[in-house]
């Protein structure tokens, strides 16, 4: 059974998360819940604590905070929860919390903890239809996707504000299915090491001119990301020409998509990388 972390922000649909918690708990999962301060206006943390058996985290600094205790125990709640997450969900995700996550603003428990996780992240936006279509929201969602987060498109229908349109939180049974698919997907390539190459080599003719090809590296990037999502330990060797490799924070152990990356220029460099990595890998894919 899995450690499921749920962040609840102050969308009107927050009360529906009680049903989601109930369903997931019934399957034997451990639920660790955090909320934004404003979400307390909609759903009671006490009620959630009774259901999950764990404290609900809202504030980064508790009233009885003591730095001496932290230094002694070497444990900080928002980091510990991020570490233990098998999946990290924000539901409902308000336009505001989506924007803060997209910008890397870490000013509350959820937005700080999410930066510290390397688990899969599922964002379930829910808001008024005009807020959903606003270019700022759409831009922020695209940014979250580029980090490797998965976004559930809201459902359409009657909204709490009295209009009809897109913005409803999907049925909690549909969210539960999505969570289950992410959790089971992670097991498919568990224990496998996958090496993917992407993009074209660049052979210099002289200091100015080169011979190369039109390979973009996009297919290799997509394969590397998918292999990672399916649980593999992935190394992606990409051309220096490849646009937007999987993660901007490459090769750092705390990067979000933890895909090891190397870049090559010439075919000789590529050959050296492949030979050095090949024997450690279960699968080699060249794109
Ligand atoms: C009654 C009510 C319902 C709201 N519902 C939503 C909503 O469904 N989605 C949303 O993005 N914001 C909604 N808001 C606005 C957010 O609560 C507001 O932007 C808040 O600052 C978000 O803070 P948080 O992201 O820290 O929870 C609602 C506000 C009120 C007063």
Question: Quick summary of this structure?
Answer:
The protein has helices at residues 17-26, 45-52, 67-73, 77-84, 95-103, 109-115, 129-133, 135-146, 172-188, 218-229, 267-278; strands spanning 3-8, 30-35, 87-93, 121-125, 150-151, 155-158, 164-168, 193-198, 203-204, 210-211, 233-239, 260-264, 283-286. With 287 residues, it is an alpha/beta fold. The strands form four sheets. It has a five-stranded parallel β-sheet with strand order 2-1-3-4-5, sandwiched between helices.
At CATH level 3, the topology of the largest domain is Rossmann fold
Low-confidence stretches: 248-255
How many angstroms separate the termini? 36 Å
Total helices: the number is 11
Element order: H for helix, E for strand:
EHEHHHEHHEHHEEEHEEEHEEHE
What's the average pLDDT?
A: 90
CATH architecture of the largest domain: 3-Layer(aba) Sandwich
Total count of strands: 13
Assembly form of the protein: single chain
Which ligands appear in the coordinates?
flavin mononucleotide
Q: Largest sheet, if any?
A: 5 strands, parallel
Number of domains: 2
User: CATH superfamily of the largest domain, please?
Assistant: Flavin prenyltransferase-like
Can you give the helix content as a percent range? 25-40%
User: Given the C-alpha coordinates, what overall shape results?
Assistant: globular
Work out the radius of gyration: 22 Å
Broad CATH class of the largest domain: Alpha Beta
Q: Tell me what portion of residues adopts beta-strand conformation.
A: 15-25%
Secondary-structure content class: alpha/beta
Q: Strand sequence of the main sheet, in spatial order?
A: 2-1-3-4-5
């Amino acid at each position: 059974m899995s450690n499921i972390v749920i962040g609840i922000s102050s969308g009107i649909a927050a009360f529906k998360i009680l049903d989601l918690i109930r369903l997931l708990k019934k399957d034997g999962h451990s639920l660790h819940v955090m909320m934004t301060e404003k979400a307390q206006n909609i759903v009671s943390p006490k009620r959630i604590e009774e259901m999950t058996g764990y404290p609900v985290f809202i504030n980064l600094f508790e009233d009885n905070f003591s730095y001496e205790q932290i230094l002694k125990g070497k444990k900080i709640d928002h980091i510990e929860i991020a570490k233990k997450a098998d999946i990290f969900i924000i539901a409902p995700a308000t336009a505001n919390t989506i924007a803060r996550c997209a910008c890397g603003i870490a000013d509350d428990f959820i937005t700080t903890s999410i930066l510290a996780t390397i688990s899969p992240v599922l964002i379930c936006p829910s808001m008024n239809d005009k807020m959903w279509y606003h270019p700022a929201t759409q831009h922020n969602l695209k940014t979250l996707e580029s980090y490797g987060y998965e976004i559930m498109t809201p459902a359409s229908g009657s909204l709490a504000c009295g209009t009809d349109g897109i913005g409803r939180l999907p049925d909690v049974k549909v969210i539960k299915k999505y969570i289950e698919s992410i959790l089971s997907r992670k097991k498919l390539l568990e224990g496998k090491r996958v090496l993917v190459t992407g993009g074209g080599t660049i052979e210099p003719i002289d200091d100015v001119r080169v011979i190369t090809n039109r390979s973009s590296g996009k297919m290799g990037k997509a394969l590397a990301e998918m292999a990672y999502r399916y649980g593999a330990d992935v190394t992606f060797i990409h051309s220096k020409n490849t646009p937007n490799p999987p993660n901007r924070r490459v090769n750092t152990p705390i990067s979000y998509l933890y895909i090891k990356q190397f870049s090559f220029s010439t075919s000789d460099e590529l050959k050296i990388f492949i030979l050095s990595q090949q024997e450690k890998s279960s699968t080699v894919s060249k794109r």
